[in-house]
């Protein structure tokens, strides 16, 4: 299986991994704004133009196949952040820097608020109300600085993902048995003050565990800061990429 992807620019490689409420279109505000770099963005299985995998897939390996032989920088948002973290843990020599935006991680223990939201989402999808489930996700994950255009994009990406995934057979996740303790690259951890506190806790835990990690909290941001107000996030990412 080859993931749908596109490539922009030239220079040191950067892989962009989207949130699971979006697809690779969420990185539109970063294309051409991360400096002189070769930027690769892909759709994870079941999102955007990538189909659901027909059998358990090693998603981290599929993503890394898109990169060249030289070490790559990874930028991951939310669920895509966990995929980026896995790549950095399993292939530390292949990763020169890791930026995680409101990322999930194996250490995530959902709070009652997050668990209730997931249960509501599941109830709506089981009832066939994709539109209501989509609106729940937009309300829950898009922060206050986002424009109406940004909310509409998240709505389109999320609804498309539901439609693709609901039409496919269920496939179990592949357990690759990795640990964050093998991450060797410098790590930038970004969280938003308007996001669910679960993701702040994940970042704080990773910052305490990884010796080369730095945690930055954005007082204006929700769960998708690279979409909600791209330019300050682009500056933060450019500075980090320059440093690695």
UniProtKB/TrEMBL annotation:
One GO cellular component, as annotated: membrane
The answer to keyword Hydrolase applying to this record is yes
> Is the keyword Hydrolase assigned to this protein?
yes
What InterPro entries does the entry give? AB_hydrolase_1, AB_hydrolase_fold, AB_hydrolase_sf
| Keyword tags | Hydrolase
Pfam families annotated for this entry?
Abhydrolase_6 (PF12697)
Q: What SUPFAM superfamilies has UniProt attached to this entry?
A: alpha/beta-Hydrolases (SSF53474)
**A GO molecular-function term, please?**
hydrolase activity
Q: Where is the AB hydrolase-1 domain?
A: 14-235
Task: Output this protein's name.
Answer: Pimeloyl-ACP methyl ester carboxylesterase
Q: Give the source species.
A: Paractinoplanes brasiliensis
């Amino acid at each position: 299986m080859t993931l749908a992807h596109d490539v922009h620019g030239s220079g040191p490689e950067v892989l962009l991994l989207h949130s699971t409420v979006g697809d690779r279109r969420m990185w539109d505000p970063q294309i051409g704004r991360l400096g002189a770099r070769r930027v690769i963005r892909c759709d994870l299985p079941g999102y955007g133009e990538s189909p659901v995998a027909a059998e358990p897939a090693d998603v981290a390996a599929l993503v890394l196949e898109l990169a060249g032989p030289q070490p790559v920088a990874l930028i991951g948002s939310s669920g895509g952040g966990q995929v980026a973290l896995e790549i950095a843990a399993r292939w530390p020599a292949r990763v020169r820097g890791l930026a995680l935006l409101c990322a999930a991680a194996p250490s995530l223990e959902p709070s009652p608020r997050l668990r209730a939201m997931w249960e509501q989402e599941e109830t709506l999808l089981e009832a066939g109300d994709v539109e209501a489930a989509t609106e729940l996700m937009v309300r829950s994950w898009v922060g206050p600085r986002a424009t109406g255009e940004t909310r509409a994009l998240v709505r389109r990406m999320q609804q498309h993902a539901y439609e693709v995934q609901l039409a496919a057979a269920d496939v179990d996740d592949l357990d690759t048995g990795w640990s964050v303790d093998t991450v060797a690259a410098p790590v930038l951890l970004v969280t938003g003050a308007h996001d669910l506190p679960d993701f702040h806790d994940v970042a704080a835990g990773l910052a305490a565990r990884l010796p080369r990690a730095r945690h930055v909290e954005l007082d204006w941001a929700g769960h998708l800061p690279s979409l909600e107000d791209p330019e300050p996030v682009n500056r933060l990412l450019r500075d980090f990429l320059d440093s690695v």
